[in-house]
Amino acid sequence: MGTVVISIDAALGWGFHDYPAAERPTERIARSRWGWKRLAETLKAFELPATWAVVGHLFEHDCAGAHVGHPTPSGWFAHERGDDPMDARYRFAPDLIGDLIESDIAHDIGSQTYSHVDLSADYATETLARSECDRTVEAAEAAGLSMASFVFPRNQMGHREVLAESGFRCYRGTEPETTVDRGYSTSLRRLVQATVVRDPPPLVDPTVDEYGLVNVPPSLYLFGFGDRTRRALAATVGDPVLRQARLGVDAAADGDGVCHLWLRSSDLTTAADVDRFRAICAHIDSVRTDTDLRVETMQSVADSVVAEEFTAA
Ligand SMILES: [Zn+2]
Residue 109 Cα, ligand 1 centroid: separation in angstroms? Predict the structure, then answer.
């Protein structure tokens, strides 16, 4: 019996705050709340739960941009200060998170650090990692949440021992076959697989790591092919990502692994992006109706893995 998991990196402006101001994708940031809402609506329409890896600062209602005593590098919160700070709508989102908490769908609300710190970077000391986790857990608890799931900013793993000590139980590791996808890159090999060979993306097998955390690796990034390639292929063979996602969902329904689809809330900037996500959700819903396919979250998958290990032991 196979499983589908959807995880969403929900960062709004925090996904880009450490870019030089001139290089920030302002259009993408400006659409990020719109994309978040379309994702939530679509999941609700198909009654699909997902893991939302939220940047902890988004729980806040306001701040002075000082964050005194927080051990980030100098200037880390500079985008919150000065004459032209980043719009508050992209730094705070208790409204959007509140809608997820109150939703009828059993979403798993997890973390992506407090201020989108790359935990593999040289500046990411153990003290900073701990502080980022502590602040996130506090902000979540103030909203009545206990977090279990963790996604590493930019998919760069680090300080897993701190995650375990902070009470997290699972994380999204790296893609099998070392195709580490850092963002909006294209993967020609994957594209050829999708369009010519028609191989499904890898099903993954969640495992417990040396810190007692469950690693739920990703199978497929839903916005991993560049726009230009996507458009060129769409004219001939259809949306290559949609095709890959369907193959993965079908493989999970036929087999025993986890098809873990992921995306960023800021990936949805156009109606075509929403159409793709809706088509994938429709396919999951349809296959779930006809087979034993389960739709789970990172947290529920992790709970099952730990329970199985306990029983086996
Ligand atoms: Zn702040």
Answer: 20
Residue 257 in contact with residue 204, Cβ under 8 Å?
Answer: yes
| 223 CA distance to ligand 1 middle (Å) | 29
Q: Which residues contact 6 (CB under 8 A, 6 or more apart)?
A: 43, 48, 50, 51, 260, 261, 262, 295
Q: How far away, in angstroms, is 270 Cα from ligand 1 center?
A: 29
Task: Give me the average pLDDT of each 10-residue run along the chain (313 residues).
Answer: 95 94 91 98 98 98 93 94 92 98 97 98 97 97 97 97 98 74 49 66 95 97 75 71 94 94 96 96 97 97 92 85
Question: Which residues sit with Cβ closer than 5 angstroms to ligand 1, an ion?
Answer: 63, 80
Instruction: Supply φ then ψ for residue 33, to 5 degrees.
Output: -70, -40
Which residue is it, tokens 């379309």? 38
For residue 281, report the distance from its CA to the centre of ligand 1, in Å.
34
0.90 exceeded by the pTM? yes
CA distance 220 to 245: 7
